[in-house]
Amino acid sequence: MKNFLNISDLSKTDFNQILDYSDKLNSNLDNCLKDKNIGLIFEKNSTRTRLSFQVGIKQLKGNFIDIRLEDLNLNRFESFEDTFEVMACYLDCLVIRTTSHKKLELAKKYFNKPIINALSDLSHPCQAISDIFTIKEYFGRLKDINIIWMGDINNVLMSLIETLDFLENVKIDIFTDKSIYNNYKNKFNKFDKIKFHFEINKEVLSSANCIMTDVFNSMNDKIDKEPLLKKFQVNKHIMSLLPAKSVFMHCLPAKIDSEVTSDVIKGNQSIVIQQAKNRMVAQRGILKWLEI
Ligand code: CP
Ligand code: NVA
To answer: Is 254 left (phi over 0), alpha (psi -120 to 50) or beta?
Structure first.
């Protein structure tokens, strides 16, 4: 039985198979979720992830059930263990967005069917699959790509970094604040295709194929990082330092005039809508790979 909790849990074969299924189902849908019931639990807000799973599941002929946490007896006195063991009696898979990755691990212990991480505080693997799919679709290759990441060190970045093991000569230059980096630095020792920068470096930007950012403060962040990160806003000036053929990416939702300006996100180098569209393409690939 498979789960989809982190990119780092996958083998290269798994990763390539998910991308391959995403691509194939994009031209030809099949009925791989026929008679399957998939529960959706969202502890935090979502537009893209929730809707793309709902529609993607329907397209593969499955059913989805929105589970409202506040309606469950888990909200009264029932244990996590009983709740998830019982849900496995009715459901074939769970899609969970949670404030704490530990809850995903706990759910995995008691729910003996596949679980998909729809974003946690630590990772956003569905987003990473979709973003890599978008890069492949746009550039026509998955090698020799220089990515710039601007801003916070967060769940979206972590999952993106984890894809690098599966890609050939793809690297990420990360521009962030030193104090934010200091909270994480030991975590990155094992990754050799990433490099951190604490000041804008024109030479690094001039060789980029793609610049990405995300909100400076993620959902449930306790400290406001905007003052530390505002020098890494992706604006017209930053874009002028990149090659004209480079693209701007953002997982969305974007906070305009915080991490990105409106002229950049709406500009002709922005591929954010293609990225959002591919969320559903990737969700279908993940669902098929799970063999629910
Ligand atoms: N990118 C992303 O996960 O968007 P939502 O929060 O709207 O699902
Ligand atoms: N890093 C953001 C991503 C939202 C899709 C967050 O966790 O809020």
So the answer is: beta
Alpha-carbon distance of 203 to 274, in angstroms, equals 28
Instruction: Pick the residue whose CA is nearest to atom 3 on ligand 1.
Output: 49
| Element holding 247 (H helix, E strand) | strand 247-250
Q: Do 240 and 261 touch, CB atoms closer than 8 A?
A: no
Q: For ligand 1, what atom is nearest to the CA of residue 50?
A: 8
**Which residues, other chains included, contact 285 with Cβ-Cβ below 8 Å and sequence gap of 6+?**
18, 19, 20, 21, 22, 23, 25, 129, 133
Angle of CA points 269, 270, 276, to nearest 5°: 150
Q: Ligand 1 pocket by C-beta < 6 Å: which residues?
A: 46-49, 119, 127, 251-253
Q: Which of 169, 119, 115, 129 is nearest to 19 (CA)?
A: 129
Residue type, 24: K
Query: Which burial class, exposed, middle or buried, applies to 159 when counting CB atoms under 10 A from its CB (0-12, 13-18, 19+)?
Result: buried
Instruction: Render pLDDT for 136-171 as a digit per residue (tens, 0 to 9).
Output: 999 999 999 999 999 999 999 999 999 999 999 999
